[in-house]
Write a structure and sequence with these properties.
about 600 residues; Rossmann fold; disordered C terminus; seven-stranded parallel beta sheet; about 15% strand
Length: about 600
């Protein structure tokens, strides 16, 4: 069986689409065509192509050098003239004359489609559910179903849910559905059997990290025969989907390549040497080796924890040179998580001291100094958001076309900060009263210190990695437990929630709120007036009381729905600046059960009518 990664970018792709890379002023890729060819062949690709954005030079160069294994390719940026919705179409086996004609026609997707059909050029729609310029809707996805017969079934830079939803939707097409779409949009279908789609796959690699790990299979002896198999829909997609970690490291690798190309101070630093070792498996130079030894034997101090973690990372990589790219990146993510935890620990200890003495000015200053830790985590936040920003559209598409994603029971996560041995069984009993005819999977998410064992339960429970306990007088009745942010992100993302509920506005609740925004899932919160009153009474300081009130209003403002006990609460909270339209009162269908913890409360409830 022949293989080809049908979506790869080279150094001939000039303009990046990612915001972070645009701000840095980098190219879209720094991978040379020759490197792509050698890497693809090492990964078992029978045939190789390059699909730069609106540029054919790289693939032509490679085709001339390796005609027996290479065919030309390009990623065309085209537009729906109705609203300027941007679409990417991959085209293969074209010559330079055809490329120039495509470049002229690509401003109108209808003209482009007609030309590709007339010229019998092999092509496929790339990442069809990705809203490139935020103008993609279900209507334009359905127009694509009529316009084209070939789609990327696995895009190696997109999430599994995005890829699977598209494939499921395409497999649900029938002659009757196509007829309905034709009556609605009056677009002539591509072929006589437009409900049968050809599916391709490619990594959409820009960094050189994942070449050949997502690919298209087909029986062919030559590049020309492989292209012919594609046009006859006698091919199939295979390989990896992406996640937020892989996308973040790909962007990081491009930024690293950019620093190397400039030959600046950064490119000759210790961290550049570390990057050489991580991304390119190069040995670390003598100067960097001496610096690492110095770091290893530093006396205890503020930065020693970070130095230790960097040394551990380097030594682990040096002693495990056979690690795959995926294994290296997992190791790197874990170490970055540990460094972020170390910085956060230093930060929160200082904040705790500020709370004890009531120094609000110092607290505000300390928050501003936490930026390095936030900056380390930021790339993972942005890539998680990017991969899931089309989630609501995918949900509608799945439901409309009856895919397995649309049919599955919802997965619910309930985040709570007030979970302990005495309360666990009662809380989980209340969670169990969620409408299980609606939900297959209702899981409680909390954060207990290591080696803490909760009461036995038959319900699902996730305990996030614990890194710190805050025991100031404000929380003496129920200390706040802080989870590791990056380690927790991985666990929660793997749980793949469809909906999130927040029982408390503590560290775990805040993390639940953050994840709901990054995953673009519905988020409901239960207003906890007992907790707010307890904090205000314990503060004993007007400045902190005002800060606490603003914090509660900020927290609840980011949730989609606020569950309150009575209509009176809606009136009171509206007077305090809460958005009335977000608040609903618990009903017989949505019961809130408040459990008291010396002034603190936790809530568990049934699913509200939406």
């Amino acid at each position: 069986m022949s293989k080809a990664d049908l979506h790869i970018h080279s150094s001939f792709s000039a303009h990046p689409s990612e915001w972070f890379l645009q701000r840095l002023g980098t190219r879209e890729s720094y991978t040379a065509p020759e490197i792509i060819y050698q890497q693809a062949r090492r990964m078992g690709m029978t045939f190789v192509t390059i699909t730069d954005h609106n540029e054919i030079a790289g693939s032509v160069m490679l085709k001339e050098k390796y005609p027996e294994h290479v065919f030309t390719g390009i990623e065309v940026t085209t537009y729906f003239p109705e609203n300027g919705c941007k679409i990417h179409v991959l085209v293969y086996g074209l010559n330079e004359q055809q490329f120039h004609m495509i470049d002229k026609l690509r401003t109108d997707i209808y003209q482009l489609r007609d030309y590709l059909k007339q010229q019998e050029l092999a092509h496929t729609v790339a990442h069809a559910t990705y809203a490139i310029n935020k103008k993609l809707t279900i209507e334009y996805i359905e127009r694509l179903f009529l316009l084209f017969d070939y789609f990327e079934g696995i895009n190696g830079s997109r999430s599994r849910i995005a890829n699977d939803t598209l494939v499921d939707t395409l497999s649900a097409l029938t002659p009757a559905r196509i007829d309905d779409l034709y009556r609605q949009y009056r677009i002539e279908p591509f072929s006589d059997t437009p409900w049968i789609k050809g599916l391709t796959a490619g990594t959409d690699d820009h960094s050189g990290l994942f070449i050949g790990k997502t690919y298209t299979e087909g029986c062919a002896e030559t590049p020309e025969e492989f292209i012919d198999r594609l046009k006859k829909k006698e091919i199939s997609p295979a390989g990896r989907h992406n996640d937020y970690q892989g996308l973040a490291f790909a962007i990081y690798k491009i930024a690293y390549d950019f620093s190397q190309s400039r030959r600046n101070v950064l490119s000759s630093s210790l961290f550049s040497s570390i990057n050489n070792f991580i991304f390119e498996d190069k040995n670390i130079g003598l100067k960097s080796t001496l610096m690492i030894k110095k770091m290893k034997y530093l006396k205890n101090g503020r930065e020693n924890g970070i130095s230790r973690l960097i040394v551990e990372l380097i030594e682990t990589l040096q002693s495990n040179k056979e690690l795959t790219t995926e294994e290296r990146l997992t190791l790197l993510y874990n170490k970055i998580s540990e460094v972020a935890d170390h910085l956060f620990n230093m930060f929160i200890k200082g904040v705790e001291q500020d709370l004890i003495i009531g120094d609000m000015l110092s607290l505000i200053k300390r928050i501003s100094t936490s930026i390095p830790g936030v900056f380390m985590a930021l790339p993972f936040f942005t890539t998680m958001n990017l991969l899931h920003e089309s989630r609501s559209m995918l949900t509608v598409l799945a439901q409309k076309y009856g895919s397995r994603i649309g049919k599955r029971k919802k997965r619910v996560l309930l985040f709570t900060d007030t979970l302990d041995d005495d309360s666990l069984e009662t809380i989980l009993h209340n969670v169990k009263t969620c409408s299980l005819d609606t939900y297959d999977d209702c899981t409680v998410v909390s954060c207990l210190p290591e080696h803490t064992t909760p009461a036995n339960t038959t319900l699902n429970w996730i305990n996030l990695p614990h890194i710190y306990t805050c025991t100031t007088s404000l929380f003496r009745d129920h200390p706040l437990q802080f989870p590791s942010v990056l380690a927790s992100l991985k666990i929660i993302c793997d749980a793949d929630p469809d909906e999130i509920y927040l029982a408390t506005p503590g560290p775990v609740g805040i993390l639940g709120l953050l994840v709901s925004r990054l995953l673009h899932v519905q988020c409901s919160s239960m207003y906890n007036n007992n907790l707010e009153e307890h904090m205000l009474q314990s503060a004993g300081d007007d400045g902190f009381s005002m800060f606490a009130r603003e914090f509660f209003r900020w927290f609840y403002s980011f949730t989609d729905t606020i569950i309150v006990p009575t209509e009176e609460h809606i009136h009171i909270l509206e007077q305090s600046g809460y958005e009335k339209g977000k608040m609903i009162v618990s009903t017989e269908r949505f019961k809130m059960n408040l459990l008291d913890y010396n002034g603190l409360s936790v809530a568990a409830k049934n699913q509200p009518a939406v």
